[in-house]
């Protein structure tokens, strides 16, 4: 199972077709220790018991109970051996899911995934292990019971956001450093851009503003951003703005006119056009669906 969901695209295979797969591995079946694979998804493993030994990108590593493992997309790997007591939680994100949920903009963890060529891991104490296990279970249940596409989707998104935030905290705690391990100059520029988006996107919507803030040309910024994230700079700004808009729409006390004003749109009509173009719902329709 682990090989299938790490190495195959999730969009058509996952039963609710969200591009997010969460499962609990309790039995060792069909493990191929002879064949090498390449990860097609961004993958997070939490080892519950026993151990597993991988060869990843020509590096051999054994992972044991209470270890949290991050595996970037396009990692070459082979399962070498598995303990009989091995059990684990697995979460895999397709690229489409990462884009749809705007995780590049709001989650530094996914920037690490995009900008890293190697896996990384930390060994958790019992309290932190139990916390991560609980979050895995919550996300598993939310993802499995996708009944209302808007309500459930927003709820799952918030839980995923919390989950990824906790992972970053854990890496900072156990590694005594931020989750960003190796950073190229281009990677640093994109990280600074994403940080600036989160600070200023409500009032600044142009690539030119962020390029000036980072002392580069708009063309250079867009080129580097697209190379690393596979999205152009304007798309990432828009994605951040949509997320801010959704947060405001969740508060029924704020009118759509006020939201348009707060987000620096010229009027409510231009805001509605922008929102519907990117969500297929008008602000009013979105608000009514999340009640």
Automatic annotation (TrEMBL):
It comes from the Bacteria. Keywords: DNA-binding, Transcription, Transcription regulation. InterPro entries: Homeodomain-like_sf, HTH_AraC. GO terms for molecular function: DNA-binding transcription factor activity; sequence-specific DNA binding. Coiled coil: none annotated. Pfam families: HTH_18 (PF12833). Residues 191-289 form the HTH araC/xylS-type domain. This is Transcriptional regulator, AraC family. The lineage of its organism: Bacteria, Pseudomonadati, Bacteroidota, Flavobacteriia, Flavobacteriales.
């Amino acid at each position: 199972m682990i090989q299938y969901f790490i190495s195959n695209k999730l969009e058509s295979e996952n039963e609710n077709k969200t591009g997010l797969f969460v499962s609990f591995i309790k039995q060792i079946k069909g493990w191929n220790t002879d064949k090498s694979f390449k990860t097609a998804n961004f993958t997070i493993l939490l080892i519950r018991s026993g151990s597993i030994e991988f060869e990843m990108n020509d590096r051999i590593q054994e992972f044991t109970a209470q270890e949290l493992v991050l595996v970037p997309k396009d990692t070459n790997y082979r399962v070498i051996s598995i303990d009989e007591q091995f059990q684990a939680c697995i979460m895999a994100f397709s690229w489409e899911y990462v884009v749809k949920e705007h995780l590049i903009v709001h989650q530094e963890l996914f920037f690490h995934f995009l900008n890293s060529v190697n896996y990384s891991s930390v060994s958790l104490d019992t309290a932190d292990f139990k916390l991560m296990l609980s979050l895995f279970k919550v996300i598993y249940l939310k993802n499995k019971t996708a009944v209302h596409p808007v309500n459930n989707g927003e709820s799952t998104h918030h839980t995923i956001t919390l989950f990824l935030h906790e992972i970053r905290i854990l890496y900072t705690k156990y590694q005594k450093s931020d989750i960003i391990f190796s950073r190229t100059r281009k990677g640093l520029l994109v990280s600074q851009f994403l940080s600036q988006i989160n600070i200023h996107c409500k009032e600044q919507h142009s690539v030119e503003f962020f390029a000036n803030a980072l002392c580069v040309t708009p063309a250079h910024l867009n080129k580097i951003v697209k190379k690393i994230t596979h999205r152009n700079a304007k798309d990432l700004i828009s994605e951040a703005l949509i997320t801010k808009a959704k947060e405001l729409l969740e508060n029924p006390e704020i009118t759509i006119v006020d939201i348009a004003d707060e987000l620096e749109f010229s009027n409510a009509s231009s805001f509605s056009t922008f929102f519907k173009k990117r969500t297929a719902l008008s602000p009013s329709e979105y608000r009514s669906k999340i009640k």
